[in-house]
Amino acid sequence: MSKINLKVGQVTVEFEGSEEFIKDGLFNLVKDLSELDSNQQRISPEVIHLSSDNGENLEVENTSSIIEGTINSIAAKLNVSSGPELIIAAACHLHFVKNQPKFNRTDLLEQCKEAPNYFKKSHSGNFSQNINSLVKNNKLIEVSKDVFSIPAQEIEELKNKLS
After folding, report:
1. Using CA atoms, how far apart are residues 31 and 11, in angstroms rounded to an integer?
2. Out of 13-22, 73-82, 128-137, which region has the weakest mean confidence (pLDDT)?
3. How far apart, in whole angstroms, are the C-alpha atoms of residue 41 and residue 37?
4. Domain ranges of the chain
5. pLDDT value of position 127
């Protein structure tokens, strides 16, 4: 009996069962899922439960979101009233709407600028300071130099606010 946990794009696959199924059936499933992800098609259910012929269970979690909207609509749902809050709204837009779990500083600033109802010129001048504050407060993770993502615990909280 073997156990495997894979993440392909926005899809997480967890399997516990025979090594034979992992070598044969699971590879084909992951390949199909990666093709769906690269075509930016969405798998509608959040969790897909499958079983192999010999009764082994396979659970596929779709972490991509069904959240849609502009950066302005996301900022409105999050009640944005400051530069750091707008950066979080921009990160949400990239993560949930554009299915981009990692983003750089430039991506975040461009997203902020696409929210004319919320963006102020002063946000550009304070941008680095605001990002540093968000990283320090665990609202963003710096995964590599100037590349950020939303921490897992924040993803769930934000997803609930935006749903």
Report:
1. 11
2. 13-22
3. 6
4. 2-62, 71-162
5. 95
d(Cα 153, Cα 7) in Å, to the nearest integer?
Answer: 18
d(CA 57, CA 119): 48
Q: What is the DSSP letter of 150?
A: -
Q: What is the mean pLDDT of residues 74-98?
A: 95
Residues sharing a CB contact under 8 Å with residue 26, sequence separation 6 or more, in sequence order: 4, 13, 15, 58
pLDDT higher than 90, residue 135: yes
DSSP state of 46: S
The token pair that represents 18 in the structure block: 């025979």
pTM higher than 0.85: no
| Structure confidence at residue 99 (pLDDT) | 86
Banded pLDDT at 25 (limits 50, 70, 90) = low
**CA–CA gap between residue 70 and residue 75 (Å, rounded):** 9
- The CB density around residue 73, as the number of other CB atoms within 10 Å, is 17
**Which one of 3.40.50.150, 3.40.30.10, 1.10.10.10, 3.90.1150.10 gives the CATH number of domain 71-162?**
1.10.10.10
